[in-house]
Amino acid sequence: MFIADEKRYDKMVYRRCGKSGLRLPAVSLGLWQNFGHGGCFANMEKMIRTAFDLGITYFDLANNYGNPYNGSAEENFGKILDGMKNYRDEMCIATKAGYEMWEGPYGDRNGSRKYLTASLDQSLKRMGIDYVDIYYHHIFDPNTPLEETALALDDLVKQGKALYVGISNYNREQTAEITGIFRELRTPFIINQPSYSMLNRWIERDGLDKYARENGVGLAVFSPLYQGFLTNKYLNGVPQDSRVGKGATWIGNELTDEMVSRLNALNAIAEKRGQSLSQMALAWVLNNEAVTTVIIGASRPEQIIENAGCINNLEFTENEIAEIEKLI
């Protein structure tokens, strides 16, 4: 029987999501990679339990997470959750729909009422739960009216299948437009999930973070370590077993000699702060007031433990910020 560490909440920092009453851990666990079929189930289970005992209560999924992209991460998470069902009310479980999922016109990339409704029903069945805490539209769909997408999400809340709704991969303009619709509907829309890191600052240039902060929308940031660049993996080049070495990331060509030099300079700052490079990179993202939580990925429990340690030093001096700005 699983017995959780009852002092786990003392190990984590929690932040209010936008202007909602929901608080999320500063560090959350994403199940995009390493939770599909063919992986080691015992390792998956240990990662989930390790995260929970560190106070990580938010688990981020999508209908296409896992390998193959057919709901395998949700299925495995559901099996793990079955052994932790007494703790369901202490977890914030999120899933998404919007990318290609099944063959035919109704499971293709879109934001239609039919796809969003059918996909959530499938996700709930795979995970063996009655509702998700947050249901996201995964990517903006220019071919579906935003009113239709918003109304579909609103109806799913009214049906009791989701407590809150969110969007992902929406820019500032798209976020502002759908926010207006949600306000008219009085939908509990609370969160947007964009990519953001030291090496990917598009939300600052776009003004999405400023809009979110001013309009009470939380940001759950994915890829805060820029596909592993902002870890110690690449400080001495490209290991064969890394994602870049395996060709498993689309940004491998960015790992130039100049990039390695920048990463080592950032690592030197992190060492002065008593942190690993990944811990400092996560702390830097969390230093943006618009950010509610950073979503980390992991292939083993030790990575979760290390990255959750970022909360032990979230403050930056003006000199540290200035040094970092010169490098990013």
Strand and helix layout:
Elements: E1 14-16, E2 23-25, E3 27-30, H1 41-53, E4 58-60, H2 72-82, E5 92-97, H3 113-127, E6 132-137, H4 146-158, E7 162-168, H5 172-185, E8 189-193, H6 202-206, H7 208-214, E9 218-222, H8 257-272, H9 277-286, E10 291-296, H10 301-308, H11 318-327
Parallel strand pairs: 3-4, 3-10, 4-5, 5-6, 6-7, 7-8, 8-9, 9-10
Antiparallel strand pairs: 1-2
Instruction: Give the low-confidence spans.
Output: none
How many DSSP H or I helices?
Answer: 11
Relative helix content: 25-40%
State the shape: globular
Terminus-to-terminus distance: 47 Å
Q: Average the pLDDT over all residues and give the rounded result.
A: 94
Strand content: 5-15%
Supply the helix-strand structural class.
Answer: alpha/beta
The counted number of beta strands is 10
If strands are numbered along the chain, what order do they take across the biggest sheet? Answer: 3-4-5-6-7-8-9-10
Order of helices and strands: EEEHEHEHEHEHEHHEHHEHH
- Largest β sheet strand count, sense and barrel closure: 8 strands, parallel, barrel
User: What would you report as the Rg, rounded to the nearest angstrom?
Assistant: 19 Å
What characteristics describe this protein?
328 residues; alpha/beta; two-stranded antiparallel ribbon; 11 helices; 37% helix
Short account of what is shown:
This protein has helices at residues 41-53, 72-82, 113-127, 146-158, 172-185, 202-206, 208-214, 257-272, 277-286, 301-308, 318-327, and strands at residues 14-16, 23-25, 27-30, 58-60, 92-97, 132-137, 162-168, 189-193, 218-222, 291-296. It is α/β, with parallel strands linked by helices.
